[in-house]
Design brief:
The chain is α+β, with helices and mostly antiparallel strands. 45% of the residues lie in helices and 17% in strands. A four-stranded antiparallel β-sheet has the order 4-3-6-7, with no helix packed on it. This is FNDC9 protein.
Length: 223
């Protein structure tokens, strides 16, 4: 077929072949294998490592992902059959292209950077969620403690108020009893002084030591 290999680099090579009118198949088979030796002299299709298929409308193809500084054999046939010696060429790849190596390093560094960034974002999100959860929990606990303290203070204040009221009532009752024992009629007189309107109605003294005497006269005397 008179194939030629051009634009050889460290990992790519372009193979060119003339179009054949006698090729009735719908594709060309491009087969290649590294480290050519006598074991592949039979040109068996099974001996080739890789195979590419391109439409018959094309007459060239760029093979990629080759290994630098490696001897390759490449064959092109117009049908799915074993190639012959005139359909194959042997070539050597060059050293790795510095620009390609630099691009590979850049891509590797970019991939590492992206992976690290994603991991850092995930860790930051986990830490932020943990901090927010802890803050909400502490705030909830403080609110509960404040509510409990408020309820306790309210209960203590209410207990003190009730105790104070009971004590005050007992003290007043004791004072009234003492006053009644010392001055049997003094309570009614003090009540009348505090409430002058009560003088309009006759009030009888309930003292056992004195007779019942209307208090109206006393009111008039007071007025």
């Amino acid at each position: 077929m008179g194939i030629t290999i051009q634009n050889i680099t460290g990992n790519t090579a372009m193979v060119i072949w003339p179009k054949m009118a006698s090729c009735v198949d719908s594709f060309y088979s491009i087969m290649y294998h590294p480290n050519w030796n006598n074991m592949l002299s039979s040109y068996s299709r099974k001996s080739f490592q890789k195979e590419e298929r391109v439409p018959t409308t094309r007459s060239s193809f760029v093979v990629e992902n080759l290994t630098p500084l490696t001897t390759y054999i490449m064959c092109v046939t117009c049908q799915s059959a074993n190639p012959s010696s005139d359909q194959c060429r042997v070539f050597n790849t060059l050293e790795r292209d510095p620009a390609s190596a630099s691009n590979t390093k850049k891509e590797l560094a970019l991939g590492i950077w992206l992976t690290s960034s994603v991991l850092l974002l995930i860790i930051a999100a986990i830490l932020l969620y943990g901090c927010l959860h802890l803050l909400c929990r502490r705030r909830h606990e403080r609110l509960q403690e404040r509510n409990r303290t408020s309820k306790q203070d309210h209960g203590e204040a209410r207990t003190k108020s009730v105790a104070y009221t009971s004590e005050e009532l007992s003290r007043q009752r004791q004072q009234m009893q003492d006053t009644e024992e010392k001055h049997p009629g003094g309570i009614q007189l003090a009540t009348i002084i505090k409430n002058p309107s009560a003088c309009n109605q006759p009030v009888m003294s309930t003292s056992k030591s004195r007779e019942r005497v209307p208090v109206t006269a006393q009111c008039s005397a007071i007025n």
